[in-house]
Amino acid sequence: MTETWAEPAPTATALLLLGRGSDADSEKGVDCPGELPPASDPDLVARAKAAKEKLGSSVFILGHHYQRDEVIQFADVTGDSFKLAQQAAARPDAEHIVFCGVHFMAESADILTKEHQKVVLPDLAAGCSMADMAALTQVEKAWEQFTDLGIAGDVVPVTYMNSTADIKGFVGRHGGVVCTSSNAKRALEWAYARGEKVFFLPDQHLGRNTVVREMGFSLDDCVLYNPHKPNGGLSEQELRDAKIILWRGHCSVHGRFTLDCVNEVRERVPGVNVLVHPECKHEVVEAADYVGSTEYIIKVLDEAPAGSSWAVGTELNLVRRVAAAHPDKNITFLDRTVCYCSTMNRIDLPHLVWALEELVAGRVPNQITVDGDTAHYARVALDQMLALP
Ligand code: SF4
């Protein structure tokens, strides 16, 4: 018998994100000039509709898969970060791109769109903890170390799309490439055709999972570069012997799934298929039945036979939406507690209404811009990704 969707147990953070609680500190640093409508305003949906209508084709709203339903209902297109940036670039008539996602995604959209297009992030506090784990100064310091060791010439940098424009620019400057969770293997093959080693930023798990699961490397071929330790916490010999130098970054959402979650769901749900994102830890990915990007996860669940059972290890907003779209399938969340991306959830309906109404008033709120030099080299690394065989 098919079970109905069971909401995971709420955590304190999740309650805050759902608006049931308050934490003044959590809002520090949020820059929202002007008047943010209260979340209790019953006219929010009507206000968003009216503002969107007034703006017409001059605005294009992008919604990442991990966004809340209240926001996603106004998106002109939904997708993962790269698909959304491409969609923005394909709409040069839209003067304003409102990006319902996180900061690095809005930066990529700014890099890929035309000069006259302005990219707006409704809440500047919507960052990404993974992207923030690799600062340009830290990465440049690591590269100096490789240069001093005489290995920099053998190293090709590869960065995940989930990185700041600064890091993409660094990678472009040093002959590397950007990758997504869908094309990481192809990007790494391209890199190994050009150098003996790869410097993989900023997600250690995507790098490790790709080379070990899909390219026949062993765990011993990988070393972890910790920017908070002298020399990355690695000896000269370890750096010389490594085939891949993984930056010590991770996604705080996917990092929550554990081997215990997998074992527990297998006991609880007979015949369950475990489907996870490659940002999960290596042992979780090894124990799963299916592994792939957000778009892959959606496709697998869309195509799964009625009555089949799935435990999904990715962001909760996405899992809930796919479960609601397929009531004939038993789709459950891999963790028993709520697991939203806290920064993605910063973009709520009040912020979207505020951003749209500002645009109607002729003001451009929270514009995200990338400086010309960084944008140029980041584009080089992005174009290299698009040219991958
Ligand atoms: S889900 Fe993870 S990688 Fe994606 S925006 Fe949130 S913290 Fe960053």
UniProtKB/TrEMBL annotation:
Q: Which organism is it from?
A: Phytomonospora endophytica
A cellular-component GO term for this protein: cytosol
The entry's protein name is Quinolinate synthase
At the top of the EC hierarchy, this enzyme's class is: transferase
Q: Which Pfam families match?
A: NadA (PF02445)
Catalysed reaction per UniProt? Answer: iminosuccinate + dihydroxyacetone phosphate = quinolinate + phosphate + 2 H2O + H(+)
Q: What is the residue range of the signal peptide feature?
A: none
> What are the recorded GO MF terms, alphabetically?
4 iron, 4 sulfur cluster binding; metal ion binding; quinolinate synthetase A activity
Q: Which Gene3D superfamilies match?
A: NadA-like
Chain positions recorded as [4Fe-4S] cluster binding sites? C128, C251, C341
SUPFAM superfamilies tied to this protein: NadA-like
Q: Where is this region: Disordered?
A: 22-41
